[in-house]
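Morning!

This is the sequence you dropped in the shared folder:
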Amino acid sequence: MRQTLVRLLHEDLTDCLPKIQASVLLIWGDLDTATPLADAKVMEKAIPDAGLVVLEGAGHFFLCGKVGQCSRVLDAFCPAEELRKAAPPLKRSGSLFRRVLASR
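The structure's back. Tokens below.
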């Protein structure tokens, strides 16, 4: 199992990046030492429709300390109205997800 994880982490998929057809938002911490900001810049250049937002003072697990900032970035990238249009109908009308989407 460890060997599989090591191979996975060292796999270079750079050649696949230009083939990505979806819009991509990269959110990165400028203090990320696990996956450096330089890697994000490579991805941003290689993916046809990519944007990069750098969170100052944030590391690899930036979401833990930058929830509000991440939320604002995600809302700007994909507004709630767009999410409602794109989301498939939920099977259970009383689900938490439907209430969350309706409240936005």
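Headline: The longest strand covers residues 24-29.

More detail when I'm at my desk.
O.
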